[in-house]
């Protein structure tokens, strides 16, 4: 597989640098400092989770929980610097990041939302921070980057759903030598979680006691995407996470323009996970397999007319266990029914979604949008408890300032109501989830 990865990239580089190639990105480089950028993103996040039916986050002596209520808020700052590339056949550059967060509210009795790490006494940290950097080289339209970075591959993706993002350490090469075709390949050796300040702070899959296994050792990834037409794209990706699993992904996306005001989009996503049976995995259904083999796919259709978009989606999971991810990044799940609380990826689960989006620009309020969706899942295989079922309802509204000194400042409110039946309650607890997120991106250089 590795020979195929690099031979494909070599082919793309060869084609792009032939006498028939157009001017490349490196040919147009203005220089290390001339093309540099420095960006800051300030984020405030408030998160409240009100668990029902006795669920909670802090155990009491003798059993049960002290509270089923989690609430905290904080402020974070993310600085990202990207240099340009030096001129010449091979360009050299540097990227750097610095980030930190400060707790505004939330004590030990309400912890557990994932905004902050805990100190040695079990209390949320008052502040956190980390820095990182990467070197990069560019030949024609192919870039090699080594060091700390953010990754958005469907088989290895750093999550940014809390105050600070996950950060991966490793090497990634991306090639765009052929028009419409993007190839990528990488090897990563560690992954720092959102509240982790170390480079390898994400634990592995849970053992029989619910404890995390060892963290990520190495993961190799490959990806290819191609625009067949302006309206039809496809993508393939694969990964090999040492000691865990191999994962394969496919995507097909087609948009049918109906007229200037209407369109229909069809989006298919599929995963296949293959892994060895492992003694340190939780056996989700009690049949002794303890494997990670899983097939997961979703198909969504979205009809847009003016300011309105209506989406329906169906998703299915099958195999030895539920779909596993996390050691390969908490954002590594590109399927239709992965929403605010649940991903609807239980063993043998079938789920359906209905969604509505509204863009208020057509009604004279540019920057204001609204979304609501409902997903229900059933047919979940459980540990002898019968058929598992779950459902979730989301409501979200966002407003982005369109002009003025605070242009691009955004305000976002998210609410989720999640419920599961008795057979599935041991896997996922009923909860109301409310979040308020304010972001201000600023381009300094």
UniProtKB/TrEMBL annotation:
A molecular function GO annotation: porin activity
Segments passing through the bilayer: none
Span of the signal peptide: 1-23
Keyword Transmembrane (UniProt): no
Keywords annotated in UniProt: Hydrolase, Signal, Transport
Sections of the chain in a coiled coil: none
EC nos: 3.4.21.-
Cellular component terms (Gene Ontology): membrane
Keyword Magnesium: no
Family: Belongs to the outer membrane porin (Opr) (TC 1.B.25) family.
Protein's UniProt name: Imipenem/basic amino acid-specific outer membrane pore
Species this protein is from: Pseudomonas brassicacearum
Lineage: Bacteria, Pseudomonadati, Pseudomonadota, Gammaproteobacteria, Pseudomonadales
């Amino acid at each position: 597989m590795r020979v195929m990865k690099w031979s494909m990239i070599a082919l793309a580089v060869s084609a792009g640098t032939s006498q028939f190639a157009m001017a490349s990105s490196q040919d147009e480089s203005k220089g290390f400092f001339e093309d540099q950028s420095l960006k800051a993103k300030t984020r405030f996040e408030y998160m409240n989770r009100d668990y029902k039916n006795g669920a909670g986050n802090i155990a009491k002596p003798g059993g049960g929980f002290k509270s089923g209520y989690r609430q905290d808020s904080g402020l974070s700052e993310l600085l990202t610097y990207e240099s340009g590339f030096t001129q010449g056949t091979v360009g050299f550059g540097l990227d750097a990041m610095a980030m930190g967060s400060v707790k505004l509210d939330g004590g030990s009795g309400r912890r557990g939302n994932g905004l902050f790490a805990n100190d040695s006494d079990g209390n949320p940290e008052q502040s956190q921070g980390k820095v990182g950097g990467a070197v990069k080289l560019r030949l024609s339209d192919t870039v090699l980057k080594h060091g700390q970075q953010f990754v958005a591959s469907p088989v290895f993706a750093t999550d940014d759903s809390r105050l600070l993002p996950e950060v991966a350490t490793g090497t990634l090469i991306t090639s765009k030598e052929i028009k419409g075709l993007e190839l990528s390949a990488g090897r990563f050796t560690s992954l720092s979680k959102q509240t982790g300040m170390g480079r390898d702070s994400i634990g592995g899959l849970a053992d029989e006691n619910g404890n995390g296994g060892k963290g990520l050792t190495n993961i190799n990834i490959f990806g290819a995407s191609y625009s067949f037409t302006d309206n039809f794209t496809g993508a393939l990706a694969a990964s090999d996470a040492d000691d865990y699993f191999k994962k394969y992904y496919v995507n097909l996306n087609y948009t049918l323009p109906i007229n200037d005001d209407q369109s229909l989009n069809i989006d298919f996503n599929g995963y296949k996970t293959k892994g060895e049976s492992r003694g340190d995995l939780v056996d989700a259904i009690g049949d002794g397999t303890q494997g990670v083999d899983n097939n997961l796919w979703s198909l969504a259709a979205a009809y847009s007319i003016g300011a309105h978009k209506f989406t329906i989606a169906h998703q299915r999971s099958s195999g030895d266990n539920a779909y596993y991810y996390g050691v390969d990044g908490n954002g590594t799940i590109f399927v239709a029914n992965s929403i605010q609380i649940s991903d609807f990826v239980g063993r043998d689960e079938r789920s359906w979604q209905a969604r509505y989006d509204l863009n208020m620009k057509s009604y004279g309020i540019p920057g204001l949008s609204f979304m609501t969706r409902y997903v229900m899942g059933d047919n979940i295989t459980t540990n002898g408890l019968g058929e598992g079922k779950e459902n979730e309802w989301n409501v979200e509204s966002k407003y982005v300032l369109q002009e003025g000194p605070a242009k691009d400042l955004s305000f976002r409110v998210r609410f989720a109501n999640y419920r599961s039946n008795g057979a599935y309650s041991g896997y996922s607890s009923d909860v109301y989830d409310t979040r308020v997120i304010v972001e201000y991106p600023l381009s300094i250089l």
